[in-house]
Structure formats: structure tokens, C-alpha cells
Amino acid sequence: MSSDVKILLSEKEMPEKWYNIMADMPNLPKPPLNPATKEPVGPEDLSAIFPMELIKQEVSQERWIEIPDEVREIYKLWRPSPLYRARRLEKALDTPAKIYYKYEGASPPGSHKLNTALPQAYYNKQEGITKLTTETGAGQWGMALSQACNFFNMECKVFMVKVSYQQKPYRRSVMQIFGSSVFPSPSTETESGRKLLAADPDSPGSLGIAISEAVEIAAQRDDTNYALGSVLNHVLIHQSVIGLEAKEQMAKAGDYPDIVIACCGGGSNFGGMAFPFIHDKIVNGAKTRFIAVEPSACPTLTRGVLGYDYGDVAGLTPLLYMYTLGAEFMPPGIHSGGLRYHGDSPLVSQLLKDGIIEATSLGQTAIFEGAILFARNEGIVPAPESSHAIQCAINEALAAREAGEAKTILFNLSGHGLLDLPSYDAFMAGKLEDYPLPEGILNKALGNLPKI
Amino acid sequence: MSSDVKILLSEKEMPEKWYNIMADMPNLPKPPLNPATKEPVGPEDLSAIFPMELIKQEVSQERWIEIPDEVREIYKLWRPSPLYRARRLEKALDTPAKIYYKYEGASPPGSHKLNTALPQAYYNKQEGITKLTTETGAGQWGMALSQACNFFNMECKVFMVKVSYQQKPYRRSVMQIFGSSVFPSPSTETESGRKLLAADPDSPGSLGIAISEAVEIAAQRDDTNYALGSVLNHVLIHQSVIGLEAKEQMAKAGDYPDIVIACCGGGSNFGGMAFPFIHDKIVNGAKTRFIAVEPSACPTLTRGVLGYDYGDVAGLTPLLYMYTLGAEFMPPGIHSGGLRYHGDSPLVSQLLKDGIIEATSLGQTAIFEGAILFARNEGIVPAPESSHAIQCAINEALAAREAGEAKTILFNLSGHGLLDLPSYDAFMAGKLEDYPLPEGILNKALGNLPKI
């Protein structure tokens, strides 16, 4: 077994194909429905805002999907990403467990999001689209799509939730460095934005509003499409590059995980890491446990229900069959902006229902404790979102110590926290709340799910 | 020749020894002088604030100095650092030149500074010291020393120039995450700080004042020493790990640089990259050009004079024989805080005097233009300091295009700019000044050099 801290792959060892778990799932999720007709959506329902290649991937049951050379060339700027053995953290925890983590934070936007932003921009460009629109909350996805559009010489318009636009100027700066136009949402750029501003000029905005603005422009213009950073099947397919590399790296280390952990908001980070290993569980009977970790303030998988729901507040998107807290649920203002989403990937939802994966939730004071312990041992200051996976891995390593079991734990460190430092300041000053959610709040939102 | 974008080394290929250019220099710099007696300093003058091993390294003429295993173990968290071939930038410049860059920004503090912070903390710990003090301006060095002290379980007190403490809270947050105490300087922690505050309660502070505070505490307490992030010989020895790795990586790429470029403030970044290649020039007659790039607003090498000067404003440090603008010179408020120093490394100064290296200067609007061109092609948002090297490399690549010469250019990308984004905002808003320095200002400062 290697005594190295980092397990690296050469560029020649980078995967040439993405993995599509739909080829292997015992049960596929129910199909998305057209929000008007409540009938399953067809390609024609989606072609106003997505390119055909992504619509094809969305329903594909092919196990392997080729990564275009043009995308692989840009992946090489940071991929294959390193796998680390967290030797110093293991020692600090005095655990017999071995802890590995895959680090996606060395990418240009500092998170895993560019893995899918690049192919999304590429396929759109191939089909003659020259402009993309999107929404962003904390800004990770907006940064990634801005960079992807820059690499393929496309224009990018980002609608950034107004309160984040004002509070998180650093990520906005990066989008602008890469040439994007960034608008605080609600904006005067769209009909839906203007309508909202007329009613409430001081609206702080929300992801649901920003989605409406981005989709409105994409639907109206022939040269413009829309791009989404999580939830959908094609996004999770692209993210599989994470888990595929991790499998090669674990093999190089002479090891295989007993437990695979990732944080889970829309599901692209969890799916990207876990699905290639879940293949081994479904097809080869591997005994690995898979844990999706979400914030206790937005407990979609652990306290939501499985059913059809809208992706946005206004009800403009297709209805997805997923675990949801209800589209009207407004998560408390936790610092893990990337995990504040009422729904979840239909693929992740189905795997949870079928007992192939587990889900758990953590409060934000716990995850910042884990983040600081991790930083002081491994050097990297992690993103709050990724710190959910860290704290869960710490808990599992401590359980292994209690049980005296030399478990092998693998988690995805999906991004660094260098643009989240005010959150750390708030934690160190003792100002963070955990926002326990009373049943009543959830029941109210869940009582209003659309009737199918 | 490899077609890879990244040239990686395994942990086994990491250097086991640092390189000390004093073994090879045709002329050594004149020795430092005691500020009171004006006689050459002896070990006893320095032992109040530095451990003996670093004092030994400061005067050593051994070519190779062993890297302690304990330091190499922590280096493995990010070392060997990657060497990139900037293929996309080359294409954008339409140049026949090959451009390589060594990337030090993937380290925990995001810059090259941890390369020396770690051994400095280690040697102090070995000699029974449990606390270190230092000063920091923009915060790169303070972050690195905080992390190094954390890794070796030492306390760290950082005196941060007050105006930076207030304007750059992000780097302060990182120091605190790693357990340091950070004080805005001038502070009430020291006699010199209290004296200054009594005279001017609103003093914005300066590096010179912060050095005085850090040195005062270190000199008074037996368990406490002081650490410096650049200028001194032992710092440049530790940074040689950059150039040693780059030599191995260039060999793997089947190439050798015609031009080596690094930005230069105190000289540790330039020395770290260049000195191992300068060995080949001195010892083997290699024809490589070496370019130290400084800001035109702080033109130590290009417009200063070579002579004895103090390292700080108060005149407490030994007199160093170096290019200087005069210790009383106050550089304009450019965004490359790491390059705002009146003096330069005595080793770099001597090599410039002997014609072995060259120096040039660039204005800050030019370097931000280079930074954005680089980011849009290579993905990484560079630190303003490092962008001096980028813009110089771009200029050399364009000159190679004019001349039709396939030059091989290597530069050091010493850090990322994710904690410098307000500087980018100011540039994009057209608000940056170049601060051309009239002769008069320089002549005044240079007229007041200490008389030896």
C-alpha cells in the first residue's frame, strides 16, 4: 500500500466516458411532467431552453457517454483531481479508520461545478447557441458557468439573488473577470423581474425568482439557452467523472471504500462521487454504504416526502418526481447556500427510496466544528457545503474507533471555502444558529404539494 | 515531448535538500552590520530572535541543506506543486514561444510563503521555542506562518498593519481559523505600539511599525522568537524547493527555459524559482536570462541604489547591503501589497550587480490586463503580485513572435488572487492608478541612506 498523502492520476488516466447510473438502477424514477398538461414531457417541451444532446442524455439509459475531446482538453487544466489520504486527520481522531477525500476545490471556480458547466456550454455551442442564462445564489454555479462560457467564447448572463449579490461581492467579481454580465435578481432585464420590482422594489430575491428570469430570456430568444447546475440527470452524468477518477485512485492506493460520503443539495455532488461506486453495489454486490448529508435546516431527504413537485416557486418548470419539502418552503438563512433547495435529484431520490443509499442531516455549528478541525489538520479551508461531508466522515471515523473497526471512508471535498470566510467569522464569534425546524413548518409546506 | 497540460511529480520525486546559491556565487554580498556598532553582526546579535539553525543557514556556504523529514511530511499536503504548459495562453498570443508556469497557489495559504514558514516554525520548535511573532501587510505571510505554527502546535501572534486589518478581513479570518492571535498594528500589546498610539490614535500603521512590535515581543521573551517571510538568505534557501522541482519538471517535459521570470518584492519568490537555474548558468554556462519583475511604484532594483540600509523604518534591524529606495520611502498604495518593500534580498541584489540577472518594472494597470488575459485562458485568477510575472512573460512571448523565435519561457505563479478580488473590481471599474514616481521623491529618500 502506498504511503503517499496524495494519489494522483496522469492526464492519460482521465476517464474518456461519463457513467450513467440509469443503465443499472433496479427502478427508474417516474418521468418529469409538463406543468400545464401534467403529461410526461417530451423533447419538444424542453428544446426551447436546452440543446438536443442534453435532452438525449436526460433520458438516456446508455451506461457510458463519451466525453467530447474539447471538454477533456479543458478538464486538463485541473483534472484528474487529487485524492488525498487524510493521515493527519486520522491521527487527530485517533481512529483505526482510513479516511480518503477527493478534492474538487482545485478547479478554476473552486468547486465541482465546472465538471458539468463545460459540457453544457460545449453542447449548446455545437448546436448554434451563442448565449446562456442561469441563476445563482451564493455564486458557485454562476462562477462555473461564467468560466465555461468564457472557454467556449459564449456570452453568459447570470441572475444572482439580490441579497447574495450585495453580500457576496467576491464571487460576482470572478464572474465579471470571466466576462459575464451579472444582474441582481429581481432585475429590470425581464418581464417577471419588472413585475416583482413593481410590487416590491426592495425584494431581496430568491432562487425561484432568479430561475424565472433566466428561463424567461432563454425561452424567448433563439440564440439563447438556459443551464442548470444540479438536480437533472444530465448534470449528474457529467459529475460522474469525480467518482470514476476516485475509483481508479482507490485502486492505486490498494483500497476500496466501506463508506462513501458526500453532501447533498440538488444531488450533483453526491451523485458525481457515489454513482460509479453504486454501480459496484448494484451490479457486483459490493457492501459499501452511501451517505448523503444534508443540512438539518433543509432536510429534503430525511424529512421530506417523495412525490411530484415543481423545481421553482412560480411553478414554471416541469414537475419532477423527487423528495421535496414543497416548492414554497423557504429554507432558513444557513451559510451553506448551495444546499438550500427544497427538492432533490430524482435519481438520488429513487436510490434512497430503494434502500441503496442512506441520508442524514447535520446542523451548521457541527459542520463548522468539523471544518476547522479539518483545516487545522489537512490545511484546506473547506466550503460550508463540503463540510457536511467532512463532519459525517469524522462521525463515522469516531464510530469506527468505538467499534474497533478499521473502516475505509471516502468523502468528496467538493470545494474550498476561501470565498466563505465571513461564515467562519460568524461561527468563531459564536453567532451561528442551527435553525431546528418545527414539524409545523414542514407540514404546512408539504400540505401544498401539487395534486397529480 | 509530452502533450500534457500539467507536468506532475510524485511525492517520492520531491527534493530532499534545499539549494543554497551562496555556494556558487562569484561574489558574496557584504555582511549585515549591527545597527549600533556598524560592525558585522555575529550569531549572538541574532540569537535573541532567531534559532541557531536559521542563523547557521543565514551564513552557510554549503550548496545543499537537508529538508527535515517533519517538514517534508507537511510539504506533501500540496508539494510537489504542478508545472503547467500554458497552451491556451500561447494560442491566444499566437506566439511560437512555449510558456510554462509553476503554480504555488494550490498550497494551503494560496501562495509560496508556506515553503519557508514551515521550516522556520520547525527549527524554532526544535530549539524549545513555543511562540512566534511576525508582521503582515496584505496577509499572505501572516496566513502562512499561522498555518505553520498550527501544524507544529506553536502559538502565533501576528501584527497586521491596521489599514489592512480593516480592509482585508478575509486573510485575517484564515489566520484565526488556524488559531493565531491577530492584532491591528499599532496595538496596545507592545511598548512601541502604545507609544505610537499615544501620539496618533488613528495611525493606519505600516510594515515598519508592525515589525517593531513583533521584534519587541520576541526580543523580550525567552519562549518567543520572530519570523520573517522574505529578504533573508535562509528564507531564499527554503524557497529553492520551487525551482528544484521546476527543473525536474522541465526535464520531464523535455525542455529547458531560455527565460526565467518571477515577481520580486523582498526576493523570496524570485530567488526560489530562479536560483536553482542560476546554478546552471554560473556552473555550467547555461545562457538563460533571469528577469525579476517589480512594480513601477516600488522600483527597488530598477531605480534604487546598492548600499547599506535598514530593514525597517525605526532602524532597529541589522543594516543589509542591498538595492534600496531608502527605508523612509513610503510606496504608493498599489494592490500588490507583497511587493511594497523599500529594499530587496542581498543575494538578489548581488546577482543583479554582477549582471547575472536582469530587472524590469511594470505598472499596475498593465499587470491586471495580463492577469485577466491569463485567467480567461488558463482558468486561474492570479494574485496581483504574481501578475507581474505573467505580464512580463506575455511581453517576452510577444517579443518572440516579433522575432520569430521559439523561446521557452518559465515563470512562477506564486499565488492565486481569490482574496484580492476587490483589486480586480477596482481595475474593471477603471479606478486603478499607475503612480509614476517623479525623480524627486526617490532622490529625497535615497539622500537619507545611513552613513557607513
Automatic annotation (TrEMBL), chains A, B:
The protein's required cofactor(s) are namely: pyridoxal 5'-phosphate
So which domain of life are we looking at?
Bacteria
Please list the residues that carry the modification N6-(pyridoxal phosphate)lysine.
K113
CDD domains named in the record = Trp-synth_B
Keyword annotations of the record: Amino-acid biosynthesis, Aromatic amino acid biosynthesis, Lyase, Pyridoxal phosphate, Tryptophan biosynthesis
The UniProt record lists the EC number as 4.2.1.20
Which molecular function terms from Gene Ontology are attached? L-serine hydro-lyase (adding indole, L-tryptophan-forming) activity; pyridoxal phosphate binding; tryptophan synthase activity
UniProt pathway: Amino-acid biosynthesis; L-tryptophan biosynthesis; L-tryptophan from chorismate: step 5/5
Q: Name one GO cellular component term.
A: cytoplasm
Tryptophan synthase beta chain-like PALP domain: which residues? 77-415
**What stretch or stretches form a coiled coil here?**
none
Query: What InterPro entries does the database record attribute to this sequence?
Result: Trp_synth_b-like, Trp_synth_b_CS, Trp_synth_beta, Trp_synth_beta/beta-like, TrpB-like_PALP, TrpB-like_PALP_sf
Which transformation does this protein catalyse, written as a reaction?
(1S,2R)-1-C-(indol-3-yl)glycerol 3-phosphate + L-serine = D-glyceraldehyde 3-phosphate + L-tryptophan + H2O
Q: How does it assemble?
A: Tetramer of two alpha and two beta chains.
Q: What HAMAP family does the database record attribute to this sequence?
A: Trp_synth_beta (MF_00133)
Free-text function comment from the UniProt entry: The beta subunit is responsible for the synthesis of L-tryptophan from indole and L-serine.
Homology family:
Belongs to the TrpB family.
The name on file for this protein is Tryptophan synthase beta chain
